[in-house]
Design goal:
By secondary structure, the chain is mainly α. It folds into 2 domains: 152 residues, no CATH class; 123 residues, no CATH class. It is built from 17 helices and 4 strands. A 4-stranded mixed sheet has the order 1-2-4-3. β3 and β4 form a beta hairpin. α9 crosses α10. The longest helix is centred in the N-terminal third of the chain and has 21 residues.
């Protein structure tokens, strides 16, 4: 009985150890919470009783586009723009994105204690900034801008009016907001090296950004972090070896041309393999591969800190990861 009990404890310990190694970032929430300051610029912008010059003085960064005052005045009275803002308020009325952002930035302060926790400014762009510019973050000033109309839900009628491509609308849901903020933050943290622009370097850069997502969003699903559907993520996992073999056989790993990045790193309905099954693949599959390379490196080097990893040479990460998908 004692032997059986000991073996049972050993099995439980092993299972717990394996579970912990599966995601090194899963941990308790940082002890010190972060209180973010949120400002809804559109609430004041569409209040025509507030003079425009008062808003320009209060939010100078929002009016630095050389737009004439009369244009702003027409915009703040435009019925369509007001209707979009009303939709924003309805969609986010009962959402916990502020709490989720505060929790995420608590992790941010833990891993990047020398960085400013940003002031957050939300607004409705009138559907003008709903694509790649829904989130803007400036690391130096500590300012974060979020166009909430970029996250109304993939089936929202406004996106149908704007004829947003379905593959883009797929990531324009309220639950995509916090991962999008993390990506914008990560873009400013991961260093840019103009001397390392081969395809594998670009994949590892993207992988580093997703490792930051792993750290700042330890309880968030991989689908949300990378912007894949569950079916797309399952496809990537099932075809990982074939994807990598294709990159190797086509001599893409160290290729410095634009072709590979356009086919496998840019937003698209699917990745361009040039065969009959490519339409089953998710767009930006190279980003997912870069993520797996980075995760493999961290598995091989569990002692490295997040900051040291981010600043590590991309070629070193690739070489020392010993990345080779199994069948």
């Amino acid at each position: 009985m004692k032997t059986a009990h000991w073996i049972g404890c050993l099995i439980i310990f092993t299972l717990l150890s394996c579970k912990k190694e599966e995601n090194r970032w899963v941990q308790q929430e940082p002890e010190t919470p972060v209180e973010l300051k949120f400002t809804d610029i559109s609430k004041e912008f569409f209040d025509t009783e507030i003079p425009l010059n008062v808003l320009e003085a209060k939010y100078p960064f929002f009016f630095q586009f050389g737009v004439e005052p009369e244009v702003w005045e027409r915009q703040r009275r435009d019925s369509a723009e007001i209707a979009v803002y009303d939709t924003v308020n309805k969609v986010f009325e009962n959402r916990n994105y502020k709490k989720d952002l505060s929790q995420m930035f608590a992790y941010f302060r833990k891993y990047f204690p020398n960085d400013l926790v940003p002031d957050v400014f939300t607004y409705s762009s009138g559907l003008q900034n709903i694509y790649e510019r829904s989130v803007l973050y400036d690391r130096k000033s500590g300012l974060l801008f979020i166009a909430l109309d970029g996250f109304l839900g993939k089936n929202n009628s406004w996106y149908k009016v704007e004829k947003v491509y379905p593959y883009m609308a797929e990531n324009m849901n309220p639950e995509n907001l916090v991962p999008a903020v993390v990506h914008s933050v990560a873009e400013q943290i991961v260093p840019f090296n103009p001397k390392q622009q081969a395809f594998v370097d670009l994949m590892v850069d993207e992988g580093k950004m997703l490792i930051i997502s792993d750290a700042l969003l330890p309880e968030t699903s991989d689908e949300l972090k990378i912007g894949f559907t569950k079916e797309q993520l399952d496809w990537a996992k099932s075809n990982e070896e074939e994807i990598w073999n294709f990159f190797v056989e086509q001599n893409l790993i160290f290729d410095t041309g634009k072709d590979a990045r356009e086919k496998f790193l840019q937003p698209a309905p699917y990745s361009k393999f040039g065969n009959e099954i490519e339409t089953d693949s998710p767009g930006r599959i190279g980003i997912w591969v870069g993520w797996q390379i980075c995760r493999k490196y961290l598995d091989e080097h569990p002692e490295i800190s997040l900051n040291d990893f981010i600043n590590l040479d991309n070629q070193t990460i690739f070489k020392d990861s010993k990345y080779k998908p199994n069948k």
